[in-house]
Amino acid sequence: MAQPWRGILREYAEFMPFDSDVRIISLGEGGTPLIEAPALSSKVGASVFLKVEGQNPSGSFKDRGMTSAITRVVQEGDTTVVCASTGNTSASAAAYAAAAGITCVVLIPQGKIAAGKMAQAIVHGARLVQVDGNFDECLTMVRRLSEDYPVSLVNSVNPYRIQGQKSAAFEICDQLGEAPDIHVLPVGNAGNITAYWAGFTEYAKAGRATRTPAMWGVQAEGASPLVTGVPVDSPETVATAIRIGKPASWDQAIAARDESGGWIRAVSDREILEAQALIAAEVGVFVEPASAASVAGLIAAAAHDDVPAGATITCTVTGNGLKDTATAVSHLNVEPIVIPVDIDAAVEALELS
Ligand code: AN7
């Protein structure tokens, strides 16, 4: 029998910052599918693949960084971690803290995280407070807390997060047998675009790929500081995961864009929701709104003739649609049909005759 997937720190041990005797905190993260998306390929005139990160243990790509960050915290002998979050970081931190047997403290913007993500932090036993402010303000607060109190910061400004998250780029190269021409992903606090670019360049340097892709980043229009070049004081978007106005890894995101020959563009909330519906109905993958931003950006690029014909394009869809079902169905106008226990009524309601 083939050996089961052992999590990214063990699978990519030679690229990771831990010796073999370190106690690894893992929930089996990584090893996610890279699936062909024919519906998208024909729409944009390229060969499009989705890296389905919603299949990670807590339902988002954050788990790749969290196995690494929490492993480091435990190695250092620390017992409390802290993070600010738009929802997925806190879900992941809470899960990995539970696995490690340590305490997780979470600051989230009040009323602005999806119900599923909130539930995750709660069930995993995090100490959770809602702040009457946005993500950027929460991040400023947890940075202060980690400076003044014995709590370790596990947001993506923690370099161990980036080390773990770069594994997604390794997997894409391994799954394709080569780096793609273009990689597309949503950008919020900009840790992930930083990590992917580090991963693609490191893998090419190690001879595991012969090239690096152009990095295409996508933000939501109401939270697009990397597109406009100006921080946003009151970011707004239906994609709450990327409702971020002052990305912590701003400079690294711009470097990834420029060194790779890529771009960062903005898409509207409507484009995001349309892309989410399309991915669900025509590809068969349910992703959350922020994740659909990557596909929305690709579709917008195609509409502007910016997609090279026949290119191999990988798109990260970062989180699972089940985390935020309310947003997904809110605009679809699906009226529930109720019928009596009666076959003829079912046949008629379902238009089977
Ligand atoms: C689904 O959880 O920032 O550009 O606090 O949850 O690395 O921030 C989440 C970000 C994309 C953006 N897609 O990634 C948090 C948080 C999803 C996300 C992003 C996030 P970064």
Strand order, largest beta sheet: 1-2-10-7-8-9
**Gap between N and C termini, in Å?**
48 Å
The assigned structural class equals alpha/beta
**How would you spell out the order of helices and strands?**
HEHEHEHEHEHEHHEHEHHEHHEHH
**Percentage of residues assigned to helices:** 40-55%
Oligomer: single chain
Bound molecules: ligand AN7
Radius of gyration: 20 Å
Mean pLDDT: 97
Share of residues in strands: 5-15%
Total beta strand runs? 10
Unreliable spans: none
Query: Main beta sheet: strand number and arrangement?
Result: 6 strands, mixed
Number of helices: 15
Shape by Cα distribution: globular
Structure description:
α8 (167-176) packs across α9. The protein is globular and about 65 Å long. Helices cover 43% and strands 14% of the residues. The chain is α/β, with parallel strands linked by helices. The protein is built from 15 helices and 10 strands.
Topology:
Elements: H1 8-11, E1 34-36, H2 38-44, E2 47-52, H3 62-75, E3 80-84, H4 88-100, E4 103-109, H5 115-123, E5 127-131, H6 135-148, E6 152-153, H7 159-165, H8 167-176, E7 182-186, H9 191-205, E8 214-220, H10 225-228, H11 250-260, E9 263-267, H12 269-283, H13 289-303, E10 312-317, H14 325-330, H15 343-349
Parallel strand pairs: 2-10, 3-4, 3-6, 4-5, 7-8, 7-10, 8-9
Antiparallel strand pairs: 1-2
Helix pairs in contact: 3-4, 3-7, 4-5, 7-9, 8-9, 9-11, 12-13
The chain binds ligand AN7.
Ligand AN7 binds next to helix 4, helix 9 and helix 13.
